[in-house]
Amino acid sequence: MKTKTFVGVAGVAGGARIVSIRSMWTGRAALKLFHTFRVGDALRVGTTRAPAARRFLFAALFALNFSLAAKTLNILDYGAAGDGTTLDTAAIQRAIDAADAGDQVLIPRQHSFLTATLNLKAGIDFHLAGTLLISTNQSDYSGDGVILASNAADLQISGSGKILGRSLSFMTNYDAPNEWWLFQEWRPKMFVLTGCTNLVVRDLTFADAPFWGLHLLGCENVLVDNVTVDNRLDVPNDDGIDPDHCRYVEIKNCHVTCGDDAIVLKSTRQTNDFGDCAHIWVHDCVIRTQDAGLKIGTETVGKIYDVKFERCKILSSSRGLCIQLRDEGDVGNILFRDLTFVSRYHSDPWWGRGEAISFTAIPRNAATKLGKLHDLTVENVSGRAENSIRINGTAASRITGVWLKNVSVKLARWTKYAGGVYDNRPTKVLPPLAPHWADGINLRYADDVSVKDCAVSWGDERTGSFGGAIVAEETSGLNLYHFHGNSAEHSICIH
């Protein structure tokens, strides 16, 4: 069988990472290896440098030329009905269990398969060409989600098909005054992928999720590419993509629509130690949400660092860019670059009050020993918002090392909701919603803040809740370079 080998190498600080080695057959491609290899200096394949890396690469390529008789296991051959009403969980699981490493489990086109919990295994390509329709009966489930995997290496989830979450079947009723659905006691996540390494999720669509979408817990070496999330905007907690305690993750070319946070990095409290959340790159995504567009937190029990958000468009949100430190972990070395956003007020239950940018370090409760939020860069970012660029620490946890470079925001009011507040939630230490002027840039309990080539402007639809262009309280080391803009009230106020 003829093969063709493709190798991808990506540079990282202090070395290089072999990010993918794929072996291609006629008609389809299967991921054979997705491995990280670090060396003391840059990898130079074909030279005398990094001989150990070369030996590893050549051994990997040699291995790819053996045993390429991968199989395609069509779930119809394992008893799946595909009529959208017969529960096909067992049949699909039989196909998964029969697959060997390198095999493809095929969900075929022109069929809808009703399913509950599926447990994927290492080394397979779970290929979605048709539609998975999730069961609404809790007794059909053996876990807390639909697509599960645990400690699965070299797993690929791919295909142009769909997973439909049937969210309203997990709701009790629509709360018209608050403009959202109220949920039942139990509802499944769409994906829970735990402890997986060399993981690829690409090209598929999941829609109408009743709860979190793609939850990645303790995973390492992950690619999420060209995934479409098409959830309802009025269902709570239907997050798009949630890397949680994950490392070396790339999320790119995704389109995310959801009511809750779109792409959000977390460090949740777990019984197992899943490690830090670090080395994350999110880029070239398009987002529409009623909550935060690009976010870190609120769950921050461990360290989160070395994160880049680049070249994304946030079409609608309640906070464009957001970091919420609420727990004991430190969050730092975060870059937001080449982004556009729209941020606006929504109905009361939704967190966020139209802040353009919101970086806050606020204790979750009185017992919280809050970590540190530090070394944050926002560069080449512009947008329209109903509320401030807000950088707000506390006396016990000051935010340090903030760079705003070429950031512009235009503030106006265009929604019907009451304004003049900042949203501190979740916290039991400060008021959940605090009355406050909507300043262009508001700094509080922050040190070493540099604002360079930034601008604040105001739309025609102004209200009495708008304040100054820059207001700084309990702030030290504020440096302004070529700041431009008028103000609703007064341009600069420092206390």
Could you name the key traits of this structure?
single chain; 495 residues; mainly beta; 3 domains; 36-stranded parallel sheet; 2 helices; 43 strands; 5% helix
Chain-wise SSE layout:
Blueprint lengths: L3 E9 L2 E11 L2 E6 L17 H14 L7 E3 L8 E5 L1 H10 L5 E4 L4 E4 L2 E3 L4 E4 L2 E4 L10 E6 L5 E3 L3 E3 L6 E5 L4 E4 L5 E6 L2 E6 L2 E3 L6 E4 L2 E6 L2 E3 L10 E4 L2 E6 L2 E4 L4 E5 L9 E7 L2 E4 L2 E9 L3 E7 L2 E4 L2 E7 L5 E13 L11 E7 L11 E13 L1 E6 L6 E13 L9 E3 L9 E3 L5 E12 L2 E4 L11 E12 L2 E2 L6 E3 L1
Parallel strand pairs: 4-6, 5-7, 6-9, 7-10, 8-11, 9-12, 10-13, 11-16, 12-17, 13-18, 16-19, 17-20, 18-21, 19-22, 20-23, 21-24, 22-25, 23-26, 24-27, 25-28, 26-29, 27-30, 28-31, 29-32, 30-32, 31-33, 32-34, 33-35, 34-36, 35-39, 36-39, 36-40, 39-41, 40-42, 41-43
Antiparallel strand pairs: 1-2, 2-3, 14-15, 37-38
* CA radius of gyration: 24 Å
Mean pLDDT: 88
The tally of beta strands, per DSSP, is 43
Main beta-sheet strand count, sense and barrel state: 36 strands, parallel
| Secondary structure tally, helices | 2
CATH superfamily of the largest domain: Single-stranded right-handed beta-helix, Pectin lyase-like
CATH class of the largest domain: Mainly Beta
Helix and strand composition category:
mainly beta
Assess the beta-strand content as a share of residues. over 45%
Task: List the domain count as a whole number.
Answer: 3
